[in-house]
Amino acid sequence: MKLLKDAWNGVKGFVFPNQCIGCGYSLFQYEHHICRLCESSLPVVNNLAGGATLLHDRLGGRVELSQAYSYLKFFQGSITQKILYRIKYQGGQSLAREMGEKFGEDLLRYFIKENNMVLVPVPLHPMKLQMRGYNQSEEIANGISKTLNIPVETDVLERVQFHVSQTQKRKDARWEEIKNDFSSKLEKVCNRDIILVDDVCTSGATIEACANSLKLNQVKSINLLTLAIAGEKYQ
Ligand SMILES: [Zn+2]
């Protein structure tokens, strides 16, 4: 069976040279980034059966969230880790949009849409945006927008401080560094239902900093959608 699959993948590789992010096997023409097999085994958070509390638990007490959902569980060695890496560092704009669309399809089953909601991607600092060429959270938001039919606005939040890298820092040090990173304008925030969109939630410090800025400008409600939620316990 394995020999057969290897042979078949050899044929596929000749005709369609793209490889699956998850298993490395060649993709069919109708597959994008991820093969059907890996797609069917994505570590999706079951938001209809308890998963909906994950982000609330992570941010518990720090941010008052109306609705908050993650799509994928993130842990070392997971396909989610590979997806996030490509989205962030390997020019994976179309992958970010496609993952956003998949997330949107999942959300259709349980997300409650209010009138005048708006998707607000967590912004990058302009220097980082220039270096990367795109904001991965904006691409994810564009994918969600396509499915949920909620507009994306990129001028609601602004990132006003630049840091080299925050991933290795301790939680308290990271918070000290990031807490004043974001700025927003009253006329863009006041009395609005805002859905923050981010690629991954780890400690929740970024979301807390965004939320603090929105609260200063009298936001009506804050909702949160993250493509992934990190945590070794999800393995
Ligand atoms: Zn695969």
Per-chain topology:
Layout: H1 2-15, H2 36-40, H3 54-59, E1 68-74, H4 79-89, H5 93-107, E2 118-121, H6 126-132, H7 136-148, E3 157-159, H8 171-178, E4 182-184, H9 186-189, E5 193-201, H10 205-216, E6 221-230
Helix pairs in contact: 4-5, 5-7
Largest sheet: 4 strands, parallel
Low-confidence stretches: 9-16
What would the average pLDDT be, to the nearest integer?
Answer: 89
Number of domains: 2
Order of helices and strands: HHHEHHEHHEHEHEHE
Strand proportion, as a percent range, falls in 15-25%
Number of helices: 10
Written account of the structure:
- The protein has 235 residues and is an alpha/beta fold.
- It folds into 2 domains: 1-41, no CATH class; 43-234, Rossmann fold (3-Layer(aba) Sandwich), CATH 3.40.50.
- The chain has helices at residues 2-15, 36-40, 54-59, 79-89, 93-107, 126-132, 136-148, 171-178, 186-189, 205-216, and strands at residues 68-74, 118-121, 157-159, 182-184, 193-201, 221-230.
- The strands form 2 sheets. It has a 4-stranded parallel sheet, with helices on both faces.
- Helix 10 links the parallel strand 5 (193-201) and strand 6.
- Helix 4 (79-89) packs across helix 5 and helix 5 packs parallel to helix 7.
- The longest helix has 15 residues, at 93-107.
- Bound molecules: zinc ion (ZN).
- Zinc ion (ZN) is lined by residues 20, 22-23, 25, 34-35, 37-38.
